[in-house]
Design brief:
Blueprint lengths: L7 E3 L5 E3 L3 E2 L7 H12 L4 E3 L7 H11 L7 E6 L6 H15 L4 E6 L7 H13 L3 E7 L3 H9 L7 E5 L7 H9 L3 E5 L11 H10 L3 H11 L3 E2 L6 H7 L9 H8 L17
Parallel strand pairs: 3-4, 4-5, 5-6, 6-7, 7-8, 8-9, 9-10
Antiparallel strand pairs: 1-2
Helix pairs in contact: 1-2, 2-3, 3-4, 7-8
């Protein structure tokens, strides 16, 4: 069980990844993303998650540089966008991301969405980057069980991570079980359901009981389910507050109460019905 912000899970290739990090989806390029990165790193965060599609990789790179923290201490994730999928185009997209980030390597490179007919070639390119040591781990995002099965049928490297929409109303039980069975680390995007869960009565009641915020209750639930989580925030106070989840533990009964909120309800696109 994670006891501090620096605690890490060990991925299936032996690489260590922080349990908790900062996501920067919809964070504006420039000063906004730079200050979010600097504030997060100063608060003890070591994991930063971006993507080519977020169009803020340059700002993320500048924030990392400004933080003054050793590169080896940080865990940086980015993703290849749908339009760039395919073998050579993925290799080119990776070079572009690396250049924008101003880094020599990334810790985790993900396929952003399972674009039908393309993700296998994309994965082949990522395996190449992995073997070259340009990335420390490779994984996927928004893959359902059948996408993972299809990918793994003829791949050499099992994905280290699957980053998906995950929160108390979308508990992804089948996918979670599959990932556990194959030693693929599940990671949550939109863990707070874009704020839609903050007024949920069950969660508010638990927040009162533990003297925590509703957001902290949800994020703690993620960690106790062994799901890596990367809430987004641009406010320094919220960035610090989100990480204050290592000084308490939800009881088994309270975990079950939160589990009971599951409705298989998405706030983002459905990977099986997404207009790629």
């Amino acid at each position: 069980m994670a006891k501090s912000l620096q605690d890490r899970t060990v991925l299936n290739n032996g690489v260590e990844m922080p349990w908790f990090g900062l996501g920067v989806w919809q964070v504006e390029e420039g000063e906004q993303v730079e200050s979010a990165i600097v504030n997060a790193i100063q608060a003890g965060y070591r994991s930063i998650d971006t993507a080519a599609a977020y169009k803020n990789e340059e700002g993320v790179g500048r924030g990392i540089a400004q933080s003054g923290t050793d590169r080896e201490e940080l865990f940086i994730t980015t993703k290849v966008w749908n339009a760039d999928q395919g073998y050579q185009s993925t290799l080119d997209a990776f070079e572009s991301s690396l250049q924008k980030l101003g880094l020599d390597y990334v810790d985790l490179y993900l396929i952003h969405w399972p674009v039908k007919g393309k993700y296998k070639e994309t994965w082949r390119a990522m395996e190449h980057l992995y073997k070259e040591g340009r990335v420390r781990a490779i994984g996927v995002s928004n893959f359902q069980v059948h996408h993972l099965q299809d990918l793994m049928e003829d791949s050499e490297v099992v994905p280290a991570v699957n980053q998906v929409e995950y929160h108390p109303r979308l508990a992804q039980l089948e996918l979670r079980a599959f990932c556990e069975e194959h030693n693929i680390q599940l990671e949550a995007w939109s863990p707070l359901m874009q704020g839609k869960l903050l007024d949920e009565p069950v969660l508010k009641e638990l927040a009162e009981k533990y003297n925590k915020t509703t957001a902290q209750i949800i994020l703690r639930w993620d960690l106790q389910n062994e799901v890596v989580t990367i809430p987004k925030s641009i406010q320094k106070e919220r960035i610090i507050s989100n990480a204050q989840i290592f000084d308490f533990e939800l009881s088994a009964d309270d975990m079950a109460k939160i589990d009971g909120l599951n409705r298989n309800e998405r706030t983002g696109p459905d990977p099986d019905n997404f207009n790629f």
